[in-house]
Amino acid sequence: IKQQVGVIGLAVMGKNLALNIADHGYSVSVYNRSAQKTDELLKEAQGKNLIGTYSLEEFVESLETPRKIIMMVKAGDAVDATIKNLLPLISKGDILMDGGNSYYKDTIRRSRELEEKGYHFLGTGISGGEEGARRGPAIMPGGEEEAYRMLEPVLTDISAKVDNEPCCTYIGKNGAGHFVKMVHNGIEYADMQLICEAYLIMKKVIGLTPPEFHEVFKEWNKGELNSYLIDITADIFTKQDPNTGQYLVDLILDVAGQKGTGKWTGQISLDLGVPTPTITTAVYERYLSSMKEERVNASKVLKGPENLDKKSKDFTEAVRRALYASKICSYAQGFGLMREASEQFGWDLKLGDIAKIFRGGCIIRAQFLNHIMSAYDKNHKLVNLLLEDYFKDIVGQYQMEWREVVKQAISAGIPTPAFSSALAYYDSYRSKELPMNLLQAQRDYFGAHTYQRIDMDGIYHTKW
Ligand code: 6PG
């Protein structure tokens, strides 16, 4: 008898997903280019219905038809190469699922190519890191709905659950799943940057120590900010380096890595004409962080303000409020980007359902997504999250502390671009008047680009 599901690519995500699928009662075949990973997994999977195969032919042969093949290979060329090698072996009607962090335009292309040939293709975003893949990730499948229905039982079974409901839902055609995963990561970048800025402000202005940070974040995690990222942040501050006894966080080099999904979110928001300043600035800050040598040199040359205005521990509440208000703005931006993409690509994204599956399994999982979910449930045409009562009220209530925190950071010379850009986004968005009358005049002055008037219809040009 043949196996029900196949997994190709046994790096951490693939391996853990294969184990997760097997744990849910499915029979699984696995294949990896180097046999060593396969053997390691087989040892770990003893007693489970999971078999190893050592060639693609053997792998494909071992699966029942229509075959359900999940590729967990590195995004980019490896996905195309794997598809190319599989094509001569599989049959029409088989389903290929790409569960990596693929670029959504690649997914659109691959869907078209494979669907034209009679195969099914699902581009599926999977979030939750190592632990999520093993115990229940959030899953964002894109492709033909018919193909999704064939894999739905497996995907919903292995996904995280919130209130007994799976954190997996059909997202939309072709690249929709990978697009939504990309925006998830963009939001993840902004969430992380905002938490890091809150940390920096409290470190510099209040002088909190790691054990105090642990307490503060632990407290925050009990309230509105309750989320996976706040939770792990609290935990990070407890870890001591076994050799030096110092807190590990203080020994880590301040240079951020990245694999590209945040950058794509910024690029696409420019392409689609949707402002996502808080997300994009989080990407810029990672770039700036990696210019370590330049920063060290500049720190010796460029002056900042002389005196730091110290604050007491009470100031943590203002920082918490600033963080929550900023977070709301960054989600407004990310969901705004999905809304526009849905229009432009004809995806018919259900933003409420997306918020719903983000509540569990994924890196940005948070209590607060319940509010986003109900905002879109109430009004699926909502143009901006900020306009919904709950968010409007919070931001309105917290704005004075938010402004105060940004002011403090600015006068102390502490870089907090995500806090500031979120606030600037809020202020721009709620401005009836922006100075673009002058900008239009400038454009017309030097380039005869014309302008419109507020008092008369038509297009005008002036000889300035
Ligand atoms: C997830 C994560 C994951 C991502 C890492 C690293 O949802 O599980 O988003 O997909 O690869 O978080 O991202 P960077 O290396 O770009 O920080």
UniProtKB/TrEMBL annotation:
<keyword id="KW-0311">Gluconate utilization</keyword>
<keyword id="KW-0570">Pentose shunt</keyword>
<feature type="binding site">
    <location>
        <begin position="9"/>
        <end position="14"/>
    </location>
    <ligand>
        <name>NADP(+)</name>
    </ligand>
</feature>
<feature type="binding site" description="in other chain">
    <location>
        <begin position="184"/>
        <end position="185"/>
    </location>
    <ligand>
        <name>substrate</name>
    </ligand>
</feature>
<comment type="similarity">
    <text>Belongs to the 6-phosphogluconate dehydrogenase family.</text>
</comment>
<comment type="function">
    <text>Catalyzes the oxidative decarboxylation of 6-phosphogluconate to ribulose 5-phosphate and CO(2), with concomitant reduction of NADP to NADPH.</text>
</comment>
<feature type="binding site">
    <location>
        <position position="449"/>
    </location>
    <ligand>
        <name>substrate</name>
    </ligand>
</feature>
<feature type="binding site">
    <location>
        <position position="443"/>
    </location>
    <ligand>
        <name>substrate</name>
    </ligand>
</feature>
<feature type="binding site" description="in other chain">
    <location>
        <position position="286"/>
    </location>
    <ligand>
        <name>substrate</name>
    </ligand>
</feature>
<keyword id="KW-0521">NADP</keyword>
<dbReference type="Pfam" id="PF03446">
    <property type="entry name" value="NAD_binding_2"/>
</dbReference>
<feature type="binding site">
    <location>
        <position position="101"/>
    </location>
    <ligand>
        <name>NADP(+)</name>
    </ligand>
</feature>
<dbReference type="InterPro" id="IPR006114">
    <property type="entry name" value="6PGDH_C"/>
</dbReference>
<feature type="binding site" description="in other chain">
    <location>
        <begin position="127"/>
        <end position="129"/>
    </location>
    <ligand>
        <name>substrate</name>
    </ligand>
</feature>
<protein>
    <recommendedName>
        <fullName>6-phosphogluconate dehydrogenase, decarboxylating</fullName>
        <ecNumber>1.1.1.44</ecNumber>
    </recommendedName>
</protein>
<dbReference type="InterPro" id="IPR006113">
    <property type="entry name" value="6PGDH_Gnd/GntZ"/>
</dbReference>
<dbReference type="GO" id="GO:0006098">
    <property type="term" value="P:pentose-phosphate shunt"/>
</dbReference>
<feature type="binding site">
    <location>
        <begin position="32"/>
        <end position="34"/>
    </location>
    <ligand>
        <name>NADP(+)</name>
    </ligand>
</feature>
<dbReference type="InterPro" id="IPR036291">
    <property type="entry name" value="NAD(P)-bd_dom_sf"/>
</dbReference>
<dbReference type="InterPro" id="IPR006183">
    <property type="entry name" value="Pgluconate_DH"/>
</dbReference>
<keyword id="KW-0560">Oxidoreductase</keyword>
<feature type="domain" description="6-phosphogluconate dehydrogenase C-terminal">
    <location>
        <begin position="177"/>
        <end position="464"/>
    </location>
</feature>
<dbReference type="GO" id="GO:0004616">
    <property type="term" value="F:phosphogluconate dehydrogenase (decarboxylating) activity"/>
</dbReference>
<dbReference type="InterPro" id="IPR008927">
    <property type="entry name" value="6-PGluconate_DH-like_C_sf"/>
</dbReference>
<feature type="binding site" description="in other chain">
    <location>
        <position position="189"/>
    </location>
    <ligand>
        <name>substrate</name>
    </ligand>
</feature>
<comment type="subunit">
    <text>Homodimer.</text>
</comment>
<dbReference type="InterPro" id="IPR013328">
    <property type="entry name" value="6PGD_dom2"/>
</dbReference>
<feature type="active site" description="Proton donor">
    <location>
        <position position="188"/>
    </location>
</feature>
<feature type="active site" description="Proton acceptor">
    <location>
        <position position="181"/>
    </location>
</feature>
<feature type="binding site">
    <location>
        <begin position="73"/>
        <end position="75"/>
    </location>
    <ligand>
        <name>NADP(+)</name>
    </ligand>
</feature>
<comment type="pathway">
    <text>Carbohydrate degradation; pentose phosphate pathway; D-ribulose 5-phosphate from D-glucose 6-phosphate (oxidative stage): step 3/3.</text>
</comment>
<dbReference type="GO" id="GO:0050661">
    <property type="term" value="F:NADP binding"/>
</dbReference>
<dbReference type="InterPro" id="IPR006115">
    <property type="entry name" value="6PGDH_NADP-bd"/>
</dbReference>
<dbReference type="GO" id="GO:0019521">
    <property type="term" value="P:D-gluconate metabolic process"/>
</dbReference>
<dbReference type="Pfam" id="PF00393">
    <property type="entry name" value="6PGD"/>
</dbReference>
<feature type="binding site" description="in other chain">
    <location>
        <position position="101"/>
    </location>
    <ligand>
        <name>substrate</name>
    </ligand>
</feature>
<dbReference type="InterPro" id="IPR006184">
    <property type="entry name" value="6PGdom_BS"/>
</dbReference>
<feature type="binding site" description="in other chain">
    <location>
        <position position="259"/>
    </location>
    <ligand>
        <name>substrate</name>
    </ligand>
</feature>
